[in-house]
Each structure stands twice: as structure tokens, then as C-alpha cells.
Specification:
This protein has four helices and seven strands, in the order H-E-H-E-H-E-H-E-E-E-E. With 178 residues, the chain is of the alpha/beta class. The chain has one domain: Rossmann fold (3-Layer(aba) Sandwich). The protein has a five-stranded parallel beta sheet with strand order 2-1-3-4-5. Strands 6-7 form a two-stranded antiparallel ribbon. Helix 2 links the parallel strand 1 and strand 2. Helix 1 crosses helix 2. The longest helix is centred in the N-terminal third of the chain and has 15 residues. The radius of gyration is 15 Å and the shape is globular.
Amino acid sequence: MRTTELPDAELLCAELLRQLKARMPRDAAMIGIVTGGAWLAERLHRELRIADPLGVLDISFYRDDFDQKGLHHQVKPSQIPFDVQGRHIVLVDDVLYTGRTVRAAMNELFDYGRPSKIELAVLVDRGGRQLPIAAQYVGGTVSVPEESILVLDRSEGRDSGALTLRLSDQRRPRRAVP
């Protein structure tokens, strides 16, 4: 794998937070996509002091490649602790690539009700869209080799919650967020 300089995930998070503070409606609710999007949404939700509780989507059953990848043993139900019907929703994910994860998230979200509006916030847009999906809030863009997977990690322990980006040749297993 070729070495690619990756941006500082904490700086991208700060930029994303700046954009959300400037343009996100105060009555919007936030939902993070498991795993990296949920981690990022936890941080943003706390910093923005959003009144409604944070929602979490595990889109495993909604993926269009479910029949190829199968079910991960750690899949847990999505948790949306507010009424989605008629709400302005900010959907949060870590990396926007093909658009298929976001499409799956919207499919699941509509099972909970019909939001008035859905906006997308992502830490990184790496291009390579296969579907007409665009983010309204983007921490930054990065170009990485097509065969590489851009992974968001969150530290545990003393610096708990610190975000970093790395390249991998395989996906991180999806972990449910409690």
C-alpha cells in the first residue's frame, strides 16, 4: 500500500463543528451511523449541546451488499429516542465514499417516520461516489488510493475520544454503540 499523508482528524472535527454551529438549525436532531459516524456524532452532539438525545443507526440489515457480507455478530438494534416524523435530521458519518452507506441509513431512517429534511455531515469526503449523494457539512476532503479503506479510529484510555485517520486494506468490524 502506498503511503498517503492523511489530515489530522481532530482538525477536521473542529472544522465540521464550526460549520454545524454556523448553519445547523437549533431544532435539528442528530443521528450517527455505527461505528465511526456514531463516535463523531457523540462528540458533535455534546459540543453543540443539542437538546434531543442522540440517535444511532446500525445499518447492517439495510446494506445492498448484505447477501455478500452476511451478518456481523455484534449487530444491535438502532436507537432513535425521538420522533423522526416531520423532524429536521442531521445524519453523521465518518467517511463519505460511494454513497451506499448513506443510502442504507436513509432507507432505515424512513422506517421510523418521514423527516421534513435530512442533511449529511461527514468528517471526510474521499470522492468516488456511485450514487448521487452529497454532504452539506464536510470536515475536509482527501484523495486516497481506490483500493485503500479510510478508517476513523477513536482512542481509549487517557486520551479517550481522540480521533485519528488511517489507511487500511480491510474494513474495521462494525461495533454497536451502547
